[in-house]
C-alpha cells in the first residue's frame, strides 16, 4: 500500500474506533437523565446533568496535562486507555451507586482530554495541507454514525415503554459496554504513517508520538519529563495566540450546543406527554435524526471537499442558519419547562400544537449545523497549528469542554427559552469570530504559497 493509502486507512480505522466507542457513550449521554429518573432504587441520588457537568469540567482541566500524556506514551496507547475509562463509565449503569457514578464521571473526564488530544494528533500526522479537510470530514462522518446505530437500538429496545425497568436498563448498558470495548481495541490497528522523505520505514507498525519517534531505547526519565513539560508550555503559548483567541468563541459555542443536542434536547422530547406514550422511544429517533444531519454535513463539507474553493466561511454560515432555524422551531414546539420536568413529563404546551415531525426536523438541523461547525474547526486548527497539533487540539477541547460543563450546570436550573437565547447569542458571536480567523488563515496560505485546502 502506498503512503497516502496507508494514511487514509489510518483515518478510516480512527473513525471506526470512535464510532464504536461513541455509539456507546453518546447513546448513554442521550438517555442518561431519562434512565436516572426511572430508577426504582431510592438509594441513588445522582443527576445526569450534574454528571455531565463534572465530566466536562474535569475534561477541561485535564486538557492542560493531556498533551504531556500523549507526548510520553504516544497517541495509540493514549486512546486505548482513555477508551477503557469510557467503557467503565457506561458499565457503571448496570449496577449504579451514587459514589461510583460521580467517581466514574471524574475518570472519564480525564480520559476524554487524553482521547481527543490523541485523536487530533493522529488526524494531523496522517494529513497534509491538501487532505486535512477531506480527512476531517471522513473522521467526522464515521464518528457520527454512532448517533444513528446507538439510538436506533434504543428505539427498538424501548418502543412502547412508558417506564424503564431495571432489566431494560441492564440489557442496554451491558450491550453498550461491549460495543465501547470493541472500539478501544480497534485503535491497535492504526499503523505508523510512512514519512514522505523515508519510504524505507514502511515496515514499522505501531504509531508513536511525534516527539518520541527519533529514539526509544535511549529515552531517559528526564527526557520524558522534558517532553511533557514542553507539550504543556506549547499548549499555553497556543492558547494566547491571536488565532486561537478568535477561534475560542466558535469553539465555546460548539461546547454549548453539544450539551443541548446530546443531553438536553432528548430529555425535552422524552418529557413531552403531548407526544403520546411513545415519547420515551422518541429520544432514540431524535438521536438518529441528529446523526443523519451530522453524517450528511461531514460527508458533503468534509469528505467530498466541495466547498474548499470558497473557503470555510460559507459552511460555518450554513451551520449558523440551520441552528437558528432549529432554535426557533424548538421555541415554538417544546414546552419551556421540559428540561426540568419529572419522569411523568409535562402537560404544558408551547406556542404551537406539539408536533413530533417538527421535533425530529429540529434534531436533524441540530446535527447538520453541528457538523458544519466542527468539521471546519478541525480543518482550520489542523492547518494553522499543524506543527504543534497535540497542544492545539488540547486547547480546542479545553475551551469546548469548559463551556459544555457550564451548559450542563445551568441546564439543571434554566427553562428552555433561556437556554435557547444563550445559544443564539453565542452562535452569532462565534460565527463572526470564525470568519475573521478564516480570513487570516487564507491570507497566511497565500503568503506561504500553499495549495488550496
Automatic annotation (TrEMBL):
It holds the Pfam family UNC-93. It is found in: Membrane. The chain crosses the membrane at residues 7-26, 46-65, 77-95, 101-118, 138-160, 172-190, 244-262, 282-304, 316-336, 348-369, 390-410, 416-437. It comes from the Eukaryota. GO terms for cellular component: membrane. The keyword Transmembrane applies. Keywords: Membrane, Transmembrane, Transmembrane helix. It is a multi-pass membrane protein. The keyword Transmembrane applies. Belongs to the unc-93 family. PANTHER family: ET TRANSLATION PRODUCT-RELATED, UNC93-LIKE PROTEIN MFSD11 ISOFORM X1. This is Major facilitator superfamily domain containing 11.
